Every structure is written in C-alpha cells, then in structure tokens.
Amino acid sequence: MRYFTFWTLAAVVFLSTSSTFQNNQKLCNGIIPENDMWIGVDSKSASKEMTKEIFDNVIDRIEEVYTPIIEDMGLKFEVVRKWDDGTVNAYARRIGRTMEVNMFGGLARHPSITPDGFALVVCHETGHHMGGAPKKASLFGTWASNEGQSDYWGVTKCMKKVFENDDNIQIISSMTIPATITSNCNELFDNVNESALCQRVAMAGNSLGNFFNVASQGATVVHVDTPDTRVVNRTDDDHPKAQCRLDTYFQASLCDISHNTDVSNSDASVGACTRKAGYTKGVRPLCWYKP
C-alpha cells in the first residue's frame, strides 16, 4: 500500500508540474553553456564601449521592430533587462503566450562584445522564438529554433531588418573589416548600401565569434578565412563551436533573400539560401547543419 501511495503521489506531482514547465520553458544553456564568468558594472574587465544607455538603446530598437510583429501573431514580446546582473549569458523562454528574452549586463560588458555584437545576441535569443526550422526538440515540445538556426536567422532576418535604414556606409567606415568580408559583400550586393549592411552584420558576427572563442578558451583564433571543415551526419541542435558559429554569421550576411521573406516552422528551406536552390554562398554551414 505504501508503494502504491508513493508512486501515485509522484505521478500527481509530475502531472501538476509538467504543465508549468511547458508554460515556462527556459533554454538552460543560453547563448553559451552555463559558466561562472561574472562582469559587474564596476568590474575592471568591463568594456569601456558599453554603457547602460547603449544597452537599452540596442534593446529598444529590436523591441520597436518585433513587438508589433509578435503582437500581430496574438502573442507578447518581452525583453527582460538585467543591466546590473554580471551574468555573462542570455536566454529565451516561453511563458504562456509571452515570448521572453533575458539579457544580462555581464554579457554586454564582455570586452569581446561590440554594441552590434550585443544586438546580434538579442536577435539570436529572439530567433529562438521566431527563427523557424530546424527546431530544437525537448521533453515538452519543439517551440524553439535550434542554436545554429537562431544564429542564422539573427543575421538574415533580424539584424538586416533592424539596421537596414541606418547610414551603414558611414558606420562601417570606422571599422577594420577583413578583406574576405568586404570582397564577398561587394560581389553579392551591387547596391553600396546593401553591401555596407552585409559588412556591418558580418562584423557583428565577428564580434560574437571572438567572444565564443574566448569563452570556450579556444586554442586558435577564429577567422572568416579559416572556416570549419567538419561535416555533420545529422543536424546539431546544440551550440556549435566558435569557428562554426562565426561561419554561420558570415554566410548569413551573404544571403540575399529578403529579410521580409518569412521562414517556416516546418520547412528549413523557406526564407533561406539553400544548396538545393543553387546557392553556394549564404547557406547554413555543414559543420552544424545537415540539409
């Protein structure tokens, strides 16, 4: 009788909490796996380029674009701002009908993160909600786009949509941009403004590639000229290695499909540059994606 009672109670507890988990689903690993890094507001290692004003402005711009889009879907978009929190990470979760993104000051203050790199993190986390297939399977469903797709969508759709009307020619004029980025963007985009946008978002990805490499204590420097040559047997839903993620950002910057072309929750070819459609550039790298 005790045995029956124990397992009956266990089942009741599981059933009563599982619905809570479904409505409060966190991507536990964040933009990077959980770590013990901490960069407080007054930390000596904090980037001098990042301020609370920039932190808020970046988030404001992305909220301005995606809040009405998400509201038209009958859902709510909320970016939780934790400037004072030194956690070096970011994550997305679904709470009922709310698409939530949590952004931490510690990550924004990391010396490898530029303001545009930080914007790409916000776009990546938004991409878990909006990025479409391929999705990340979990015990309670597949609401979230996987890590690689959130990276890809973050550039092809979010960054290009948010920054398209900026004076990108002027903005990139003060950047030191690898020749490979400049030549590829100029080759694929005849319009100088579109080429400048391509270069700008690629450099945001370059910032994150360097950050991932530092965070993972990579032994070699990542660079757009040294792409990851690995080919996966099946799509990897988890965090790709730093070079592979940099490759994703760079290729995403080269995709010429409009950022206004929606993606699909079931078909990864929709709204993306694909090998099947004849693209050789702008495609998802094979180091994490299996077509």
Task: Describe, in plain words, how this protein is organized in 3D.
- It is a single chain.
- With 291 residues, the chain is an alpha+beta fold.
- The protein has one domain.
- The chain has 9 helices and 4 strands.
- It has helices at residues 2-23, 52-72, 105-108, 115-130, 147-163, 168-172, 179-188, 192-215, 242-254; strands at 24-26, 76-82, 90-95, 98-104.
- Strands 1-3-4-2 form a 4-stranded mixed sheet.
- A hairpin with a 2-residue loop joins strand 3 (90-95) and strand 4 (98-104).
- Helix 4 (115-130) packs across helix 5 (147-163), helix 4 packs across helix 8 and helix 8 packs antiparallel against helix 9 (242-254).
- The N and C termini lie far apart (53 Å).
- Residues 1-23 have low confidence and may be disordered.
Describe the secondary structure blueprint for this structure.
Blueprint: H1 2-23, E1 24-26, H2 52-72, E2 76-82, E3 90-95, E4 98-104, H3 105-108, H4 115-130, H5 147-163, H6 168-172, H7 179-188, H8 192-215, H9 242-254
Parallel strand pairs: 2-4
Antiparallel strand pairs: 1-3, 3-4
Helix pairs in contact: 2-4, 4-5, 4-8, 5-8, 5-9, 7-8, 8-9
Write out key terms for the chains shown.
291 residues, alpha+beta, 4-stranded mixed β-sheet, 9 helices, 4 strands, 45% helix, globular
